[in-house]
Write a structure and sequence with these properties.
- The protein is of the alpha/beta class.
- It has 2 domains: about 80 residues, CRISPR-associated endonuclease Cas1, N-terminal domain (Ribosomal Protein L15, Chain: K, domain 2), CATH 3.100.10; about 220 residues, CRISPR-associated endonuclease Cas1, C-terminal domain (Four Helix Bundle (Hemerythrin (Met), subunit A)), CATH 1.20.120.
- It contains 11 helices and 9 strands.
- Strand 3 and strand 4 form a beta hairpin.
Length: about 300
């Protein structure tokens, strides 16, 4: 199963693929290797890193997207497979002609799940969550009353403090959130590509020039589990600014193995993402009506996983 997000941080790293393994060298010294078939995504943050066309082609064959980050450590470019699925043409055609009422119903499902999970995160941190859980029941088609934003205002102040402002600017908490969301975004894109869908044909998000708008849609229910960890980081630092250490990054990358409650029982988050993307294909093809969105983990599973 593809579940490992491989991140290259160092400048001057040299990447190579041989005999089914991606290997990394720094200053001509091997520092590690991983089986391509075990990879969910490759994220390159070191600007001096080098890779070949052969690597891009080999990862494309395995449906592994490559994300290249800019100087702010935000995704600047994505190399994604165009021939990674046997039914890709039919799936994308059905995706492209999906009507607005259908897309609005899908967005309502995603927003409802996101708000429900936000309430679960607050509950896990022993914070009041009843009012936010109730807001999830009020989401209408297309979230016409913008319940998502209303819930977010309450959620962030309660989770991170009255003075906290969520944004893309860097800082201890926002930087950690942005890092975790990049992991989710890339993993969701991998699931979308594996399902034979186009990542820029969105359900709701309409950012111009964004190649991963559908990933931004489908990752919404999973965002709160990143928030859970970042809240823990903040608590461990006693409210003081903290640097995003290797252990923090490993924790956020490991979120993809967190067990959630799926229809077939507990499954790792990446598997749940795969199933959700596959259910979206079935919806576009008229074979299913609702997205397969996982439930929050049971308390014991949550304790074991996160």
């Amino acid at each position: 199963m593809q579940n490992r997000v491989i991140e290259v941080l160092s400048d001057g790293a040299y990447l190579n693929v041989s005999r089914g393994f991606l290997s990394i060298k720094i200053d001509e010294q091997p520092v590690g290797q991983v089986a391509v078939d075990d990879m969910a995504a490759l994220i390159i943050r070191g600007h001096g890193a080098s890779l070949s066309v052969n690597i891009c082609a080999r990862l494309a064959e395995a449906n592994v997207p490559i994300v290249i980050c800019d100087t702010r450590q935000a995704p600047a470019s994505v190399i994604w497979p165009v021939n990674g699925h046997f039914a890709q043409g039919l799936n994308m055609q059905a995706q492209a002609v999906a009507n607005k009422p259908l897309l609005k119903r899908l967005w309502a499902q995603l927003v409802t799940a996101k708000i429900q999970n936000q309430a679960e995160v607050l509950k896990a941190h022993n914070l009041n969550s009843a009012d936010i859980a109730a807001m999830a029941t009020r989401v209408k088609s297309g979230d016409s009353e913008n319940i998502e934003a209303q819930a977010a205002r309450k959620y962030w102040r309660r989770l991170m403090g009255e003075d906290f402002t969520r944004g893309t600017h860097q800082g201890s908490i926002n930087g950690a959130l942005n890092y975790g969301y990049t992991i989710l975004r890339t993993a969701t894109a991998r699931s979308i590509l594996a399902a034979g869908l186009h990542p820029s044909l969105s359900i709701y998000h309409q950012s111009k020039g964004d190649a991963l708008r559908l990933a931004d849609d489908l990752m919404e229910p999973f965002r709160p589990w990143v928030d859970y960890h970042v809240k823990k980081f903040a608590l461990e630092s006693n409210g003081k600014p903290f640097d995003l250490e290797r252990t923090h990054k490993a924790t956020l990358a490991g979120i993809l193995t967190m067990d959630l409650q799926a229809t077939s029982g507990a499954s790792p988050m990446q598997v749940c993402m795969d199933k959700m993307a596959q259910s979206l294909v079935q919806i576009f093809m008229g074979e299913q009506k609702k997205l397969e969105i996982p439930e929050p983990p049971l308390p014991l599973l949550r304790a074991a996983s996160i």
